[in-house]
Amino acid sequence: AISVNNVTFKYHRNNVLDNFCAQVNAGEIYALLGPSGGGKTTLLRLILGRMNVQHGVIEVFGQQPGASNRRISYMPQNSALCMQFTVEQTLQYFMHIYRISSVEFSNRYTKLQKLLELPENECVINSLSGGQLRRLSLACALLNNPTMVILDEPTVGIDLLIIHNIWKYLNMRCRDGLTILFVTHYIEEATNAHKVGLMRNGRLLAEENPRKMIDRFKET
């Protein structure tokens, strides 16, 4: 689904990504694990086509970033929602963006509201807590039943029980073909992935099953 080959990206002459390689398979949950400032968010922006690749090659479903006509959703690290909208207005806005019918929207919203314990419809975005904002942002990313979803620190500030339910749901969706790439600096959250890419200073240090990775680093 995503192929990253020998990608180097410089910012002010500093390597944000240094000869980076990674492979995300369709129907897989892939975690990018590493500290803040390690180049994870830059990589996501390159994959989404929001920045141009300087050196190397990135393909998304066999095409250049941003060119795929498949449904690809993105949840950024910082909320990109209109702070003056209500919860209902926000979801209806994305309903129109995604061209979802009213009946289908109602069905999907009901499921997401139960899963994510979304705030009441009339709540204004700028009155929500950080955790509520994250849950609403995730709902917006999942609303169009995407083929791929890219998540930047998706569960920061969210209650542990809801996090458990989120990953249970996402694993179920992956069995139906959804591909997930997410960024985290929590090793515990990375265990929800099928594969983990350990990233530091713009380089991929290791890429394998999370349990194997944890065991290997315990030994060292």
TrEMBL record:
<dbReference type="InterPro" id="IPR003593">
    <property type="entry name" value="AAA+_ATPase"/>
</dbReference>
<feature type="domain" description="ABC transporter">
    <location>
        <begin position="2"/>
        <end position="220"/>
    </location>
</feature>
<dbReference type="GO" id="GO:0005524">
    <property type="term" value="F:ATP binding"/>
</dbReference>
<dbReference type="InterPro" id="IPR003439">
    <property type="entry name" value="ABC_transporter-like_ATP-bd"/>
</dbReference>
<dbReference type="InterPro" id="IPR017871">
    <property type="entry name" value="ABC_transporter-like_CS"/>
</dbReference>
<dbReference type="GO" id="GO:0016887">
    <property type="term" value="F:ATP hydrolysis activity"/>
</dbReference>
<dbReference type="Pfam" id="PF00005">
    <property type="entry name" value="ABC_tran"/>
</dbReference>
<keyword id="KW-0547">Nucleotide-binding</keyword>
<protein>
    <recommendedName>
        <fullName>ABC transporter domain-containing protein</fullName>
    </recommendedName>
</protein>
<keyword id="KW-0067">ATP-binding</keyword>
<dbReference type="InterPro" id="IPR027417">
    <property type="entry name" value="P-loop_NTPase"/>
</dbReference>
